[in-house]
Amino acid sequence: MDFIKVWLTGYVNPSRMIDQLVAKPAPQWGIFAQLLRGLMDSIFIYLPVYLMGRVPPTPSFLPFFPTESYYFVLIWIAPFVLIFILLMQAVVIHVILRLTNRKSDIDQIINLTGMAALIVGSVLIPWDWAMFTLGMADQYILGITHLFISLWAAVIIVIGLRKLFSVPLWLGNVLGIIPIPIALPFAIMFMRSPF
Description:
The protein is an all-alpha fold. The chain has helices at residues 2-12, 14-22, 28-51, 70-99, 106-133, 139-165, 169-177, 179-190. The radius of gyration is 17 Å and the shape is globular.
């Protein structure tokens, strides 16, 4: 119940959510948050489009997974891909902080980035279905809107890095944006637009 309270606080008061998150088990909460986000994608996005018989608009880049059944594959691999992306993002943020001789804690970074991903990712699910319902679902439109909505996660990360490690605003902005280009190659390789 405490996890849900912290998660929901992130929608109305990210600063308070970060204060609460500091005292929670790290990196467990961040990994669980990203796992939950991946399971939500699997159950509420990829399972329905698979059951609808849809085929991804972009072919599979993995030759051992045919495009026709790739949504079925995503039901199973999406949570693991998202956890891998989370860990890569957290490591890069941690390394940059250490290279600039700043205080850092990889466990707290994982908690912060994982919770930010869950907060934003759980909004992307109804967003995608709303776009589909309105007839505006297209992989390019969804991709562009996802990038803009992901800036919300960047803001949460900037706030968190300032509160946790006193990171200056300019560096926080860089580190808040860095997760997006880190995630992009993996998302392009493994993930697919649902419509």
